[in-house]
Specification:
mainly beta; Jelly Rolls; 6-stranded antiparallel beta sheet; 6 strands
Length: 109
């Protein structure tokens, strides 16, 4: 659940039940998690670490990560910088300019 979005960052709430599966894939933004409550393991770039209430986790953009072995339901504050999914993708091709002539079809042409 996202509750703040500005171009520079987005902030939200992420939760996983005990035994839950985290389906995340790498993001295009850096992110920070703060564990509000719960216990689990987090894998970041293949390295596991235990997390619990009070833990702060940094994940750089494009790095594989996921929570696993959730022994107590996790509640996390998550901050993305810039805002999550703010990458606009490839630029759109330029649109053709409208004709600039003064000729108006249908008026005595």
């Amino acid at each position: 659940m996202e509750f703040l979005r500005i171009p520079e960052m987005s902030v939200g709430f992420y939760a996983l039940p005990a035994g839950g599966i985290d389906p995340q894939t790498p993001h295009h933004e850096d992110e920070v998690y703060y564990v509000i409550r719960g216990r689990a393991m987090v894998s970041i770039d293949g390295k596991d670490r235990r997390v619990e209430a009070g833990s702060t986790i940094f994940v750089a953009k494009e790095v594989e990560h996921r929570f696993h072995t959730v022994t107590e339901a996790l509640e996390l504050l998550v901050v993305f910088a810039p805002a999550e999914s703010s990458d606009p993708g490839p630029p759109e091709p330029p649109r053709p300019e409208p004709a600039s002539g003064r000729h108006r079809p249908g008026k005595g042409s």
